[in-house]
Amino acid sequence: MCNSEKGFYIQKLGLQAPSMIIEQQNEGNKYSRYAKMLFAGGIAGCCAKTFVAPLDRIKILLQAHNRHYKHLGILSTLKHVIDREGFFSLYKSNFAQMIRIFPYSAIQFGTFEFCKKNLPGKIDHPHFLKLTAGSIAGLAAVTCTYPLDVIRTRLAFQTTGEHVYSGIRDTIWSIKRSDGIKGFYPGIAPSLLGMAPYAGLSFFAFETLKEFCLQKFPDVFGYPDQKGNPVLKIWARTLCGGLAGALAQTATYPLDVTRRRMQVATMLPEGHKFRTLRQTFKTIWVEDGLRNGLFRGLTINYVRVIPTVSISFTVYETLKQKLNLDTSVNS
Q: Which PROSITE patterns match (predicted)?
């Protein structure tokens, strides 16, 4: 019996050739691997954001010039928020944050891994590949979850006794009634403009530092995993993540301030000044300057971003190991 006849009878009997079975197993393993990466990414983001939630709220209050705290410094704002609203007010909107951050972080890490595996044939330079993959990952995450970020920002901007929104559902309906669908996307232009270089630089810096540490000083920064591949020690992951986050945040912070001001524009008496990216950037520059405007809150952002990115990368890489995913330089 010839091979074609064998194939015919195999198909007729509902059986699968060994090559087809192997192909299906490989396909299933690929989907399982990406599912694990999405899960690890989502958990990593939630752990990081919960840890820095109080600092995140202080940053929003300072960036958006809440009238109760706009003339105060970081520590003074922290003290006044606790005195005026209570300690747990520092975690205001954190539930909304978790609803946003799990899919956001999952999409970001998952997209980066996907691009890193599928772009090498189109982008030859390894450094440019990391930068591009990180930028695409950031853009995908922001685009998919931006409405949730707007809702979280509106809730965090409120102060006790002056609530405009009673909760997540009320915020959604209020925005929809007053501004329609476009109300969920104010400031998305500066968000995308800021996220592309921020995410690109974050992933690029972390991957580059990881590669440098494991190739130049493997005994200091790394140890062999179960397969014998060198992987970063936990403290080294934390260090590389913190440095990567600090570098990326410094470069893109003015766009983050612009985005926040646009997001809460409808809640401010002078909201008409913050309708477009160019108008908002110019208003902040003219009225508040560089230090007190475009870079206002940067100090607390350093305190916030270093542990955020450190924890995020550390938890992600650790979970990948626990889920039997490769975390070596060549992964």
A: SOLCAR
